[in-house]
Every structure is written in C-alpha cells, then in structure tokens.
Amino acid sequence: MAEYIIEADQMAEHLSRVVQFPTISHSRESDMDFEPFYAMQEYLEKTYPLLHRTLKKEIVGKAGLLYLWQGTGKSKAKPLMLMAHQDVVPVGDLSKWTYPPFSGTIRDGQVWGRGASDVKSLIIAHMEAIEYLLSVGYCPDYDIYLAYGYNEEVNGGEEGDRSSAKMVAEIMRSRGIQLGGVIDEGTSARGNGYCGVEGDVCVIGVGEKGYADYEIVYRGKGGHTGAPHADNPTTKIAQAIMAIAENPYPYRITPENHLELQLYGRSMKDRERAELFLHMDERWDEMKEYLDKDPFMAGKFHTTMAVSMLRGSDQANVLPDTASLIVNCRLLPEDTLDSVKEYLKSIVPEGADIRLLKGCNPSPTSSLDSRLYRLIPKMFEDRHSDMPVFPDYMLGGMDAKHMTGLTDNVYRFLPFFINGASGSGVHGVNECMTISDLVTGPDFYIKLLPEYGK
Predict the structure, then answer these.
(1) CATH of region 8-209+363-452, choose from 3.40.50.2300, 3.40.640.10, 3.40.630.10, 3.40.1390.30
(2) pLDDT per residue over 168-191, tens digit each?
(3) Are 200 and 192 contacting, i.e. CB atoms less than 8 angstroms apart?
(4) Which candidate among 60, 167, 203, 409 keeps its CA 20 to 30 Å from the CA of 191?
C-alpha cells in the first residue's frame, strides 16, 4: 500500500468547513433546524466522492447516517463499527468567543469553532482515511459500518424523541448483525505526562457511567410577594437543593476504578500519590480526602448529583404555586435509575413529586482482552513502541452505549495523538482542535482497518 501523505492544510480546511454548519441539537426534536445537517452532509458527499460512490448510505431518523463498506467476506473478523455524532451543543455567550463559533477560523495552528474537537474532527478522520484507502484500491475483507447520530449531545432528546444511535442499534438487531467491535469518541493517546504518568499513554474508554435527569416538583400555595409565607414551593425547592448538596452519594471502590488507579499508580512520577492509589483499600480515609479535592477523580468513585435547572414564577412579584428543579445524575456501576430515584426521595423534603425525564443505567465494562483492545495502542507504535494502556470508565455519555448487546467490545477512543490542548473549550467557549493532533487521526484508521481483518 502506498504511503499516506498527510495534507495538514487540506484536513484543516475540511474540518473548518464542517464546523461552519451550525448543527445544534435540542432536547425537543421539533425545535431543531435540520437544514444545517443536510447542508453538511451534502458537503461531505462532494468532499469524499469515492467514499460516497462505494459505501452504501442510509438515512436513520431525521438526519442520522449509517454507511456500510461491504467487505469481500474473506476474513473471519466480525463487522467493525466506527461512530461519531454530527450535532453540537449551543454556543452560549457569543461575546466570550475569540472567533465566531461557526466561523471555522484557522489560526495559530488550530481550527476554532463549536464542534472542532467534539466531534466533527472524528468524522473527518474516518472519511479522510477511507477516501485514501479507496484511492489506493483497498477493499476490506470484512464489513465496516460508519454511524453518525444527530442527537448525542441531548442524550436522544426528551421523552418521545429517540436517540438516533439507538435507532441504528435496532436496525442492526433487526438484521441479525453481530459486531466484532465498536469505536466511538472518548479518550485518546496522549503525551506531556497525562495524569502524572511519565511519557506517552494510551487511555481507552471501556465503559461509561449511567445518565439520568430527574425533575423534582413541589406544589403548594402561591400568592403575592408582599405577603410571603414560609411553606411555599420555592422554599421547598431551596431546601431540596441544600439536601442534595449536603448528602452526596458516598464514595466506594468498584472493580473499574480500582483497576484504573492501580495501573496509574504503577506508572506515576509522583510516588506519594502513586502509593495512595496503589494502597487505596488500606488508606481509604486518606483516599477520600484526596477525592474531596479532585472533582474529576471523585466522579469515578461515586454517583454524582448536580442541580442544573430551576423553575419558579414567571414574574418577580408572584410566589409560584409550583416550583421545580432538574438534577442531573451520573451513575456509578451497581447504582440504577430506580435506586438513585429512591435516594433522592430519602434526602429531599417530603411532598416532592420526583420524575425521571430520561436516563440509562451504567454500561457494562468491555473486554480488556479483545484483539481490538490490544490493536488500538499498536497503531501508535511509530511514536512509542511500548506505550502503557489504561482502561477508563468514563464520566460522560456517548452514543456507544446503545451498541451494548451487539458486541462485548465497545470502546470509547479518539484516534488522535494529543500533545497539547486539543479539545479546549469542549462544551464551553473557544472550542478548538490542534492541527498537528488532527492529522494523526486518518493515519490511525489507515493502519487499523486492514490490520483488524487479518
């Protein structure tokens, strides 16, 4: 196979162009503007003509994409699915952006804009790689699927609006297709001493916490703010917020977080912290104090609860007869949607109406012994011949969770070798993707796809 020549400027331009389509998802599908999705898809068809002439494309739901690259059937490997999502989160306060969020500005070695790192860069990596492989006459000996959802950022939307990734999973099941593996967005290979580990590391997401939005509602007597009374819904909501803040789920050690920190401990430069990780069972009181100071690490050790939305009166001088909050929870393995709801009932003031708006239980942990898991770090051997690999049970949610049942090998991994601050501003302002990191993506898949079928 001819050597792949990285065209960094071209890749940056392609990413810049797809960033310029404001493919924002909303909780209610009826509120979404799908024209930017369709325009972006048209751009991808023009930019990657070999891919679109060769692969079979299906539209799933309103704007989901499912591609099939049919193989020769010579390999015994089961089909591989590569996933990403087309949608992005809203941009927030425009005045805080250095460059307009949908400008796709290329400057200072970065592509700037909403979706640059989360996760349109992944779609570009897939398509650049496959376009190249087709150009040199490669045809896989097994089937390859590409699945690009349109409502990942809203976890499938509100009740009644289904996840487009879930629709893809249903299509696969209806056709009796079992996958050999799935790779979605997630962690990555990283340099610069990630998490205190000396040298380069490869972090692979092998599972993800559950997700739940619960609405807590109090009803009572409203009235005029000139004559307030203590027992009103807003007071109860305030008490509920304090109860949630003051009664967090206790920390606990799971097989997932125990293994992850044991592996980190063996490779960390900071030996004091390494010894704490390695002996967390015996030094649990110290470990809990450490977790209290590190919210990211703490999230791996308990189900989190965060009040994110409030609603009361529509007017400043009116006491509402109904007040509500939404608490977003990320569930640790062994906690469930039902058990978290019961916990909330046990800590907030009586009289609450608690309703699950949407959610899913924690995902199973994928195999740490599959061929695909072992192949992922090998794709970076030209950079690091013996890069340590760390399994990560992830705090955020991805579309990959819907593929549970189609394969035991569901991995959350970005194909980029991250050296700097790529991904800065994810879900916030000034989101960007470093071009030198971006160009490592196609190379990863150009190596992986032929190797997987051997």
Answers:
(1) 3.40.630.10
(2) 999 999 999 999 999 999 999 988
(3) no
(4) 409
